[in-house]
Amino acid sequence: MNTALQSPYRHRIQTGFTLVELAIVLVIVALLTSGLLMSITAQRTSAENTDAQRQLETIREALLGFAMANGRLPCPAQANKPSTDDTSGNELARPCDGVLQHGVLPWKTLGLPETDPWGRRFTYSVSSVDSSASPSKSFTRVVPTDALASFSLNTTGSVNIRETWNSTATIASDLPVVIVSHGSNGAGAFLPTGAQLPISTDPNEAENSNANMIFVSRTPGETFDDLVTWIAPSILKSKMVAAGRLP
């Protein structure tokens, strides 16, 4: 006689999960979900950075085109004007010298979008009075109608790019103009409302928001994600020569 058949309750078939097994399953699901979310976030940030870099390249080309057409660089737009103000996004009435060297990109003047991929305005600083030659030469100053450009082949800029805020060595110096996207954290950037986001506690990012002529460009990290671009004076002047604006 089959004793197993006579004792149906001797070996119960266990069904379902114990609490321990369920907890393990939940931990595994959480880890997988967390990893997936981090991967998606990293991919999105990478895509946004790529878009911002493309925008910065477009801005550089637009500034060069403006200079070739007008013999000067545009003045900044006032940073704290809301988009609802009809005058927002237009360059400040010239000359900029001593009035506004720092502001935001004059997007309406250049026919470009107002904000970066994160919805913030681009910081824009432009050199004014030449520090080494005639003080009447600047990259933005109004000049007589018979002048080809508001600067010459000897005019130098005043923007300097460093790798760290406290470094004495420069990545690039004597630049006419610099443009900054304040990255995904947006620290120090101006919004379309005209409000400014809090300035970063990272001194390298803070250097890009303090309205002087020193800027920091470095590999992004945990506390620094600004994207910085500029126009070298040699490139600007060669474009002006090619356009018949210089010498």
Order of helices and strands: HHEHEEEEHEEH
Alpha plus pi helix count: 5
Approximate helicity band? 25-40%
The major β-sheet equals: 4 strands, antiparallel
**Radius of gyration in whole Å, from Cα?**
28 Å
Q: Could you say which overall geometry the principal axes of the C-alpha atoms support?
A: elongated
What is the number of E strands?
Answer: 7
- Beta-strand content: 5-15%
Mean pLDDT: 85
Indicate the structural class. Answer: alpha+beta
Low-pLDDT sequence parts: 130-135
Instruction: Give me the side-by-side strand order of the main sheet.
Output: 1-2-5-7
Distance between the termini: 113 Å
Description:
- The chain is α+β, with helices and mostly antiparallel strands and 247 residues long.
- The chain contains five helices and seven strands.
- It has helices spanning 3-6, 19-70, 107-110, 203-206, 233-242; strands at residues 102-104, 123-126, 159-162, 170-175, 177-181, 214-216, 227-231.
- The strands form two sheets. It has a four-stranded antiparallel beta sheet.
- β3 and β4 form a beta hairpin.
- The longest helix has 52 residues, at 19-70.
- It is elongated, with a radius of gyration of 28 Å.
- Residues 130-135 have low confidence and may be disordered.
Describe the structure using short key phrases.
247 residues; 5 helices; elongated; alpha+beta; three-stranded mixed sheet; single chain; 30% helix; four-stranded antiparallel sheet
Brief synopsis:
With 247 residues, the protein is an alpha+beta fold.
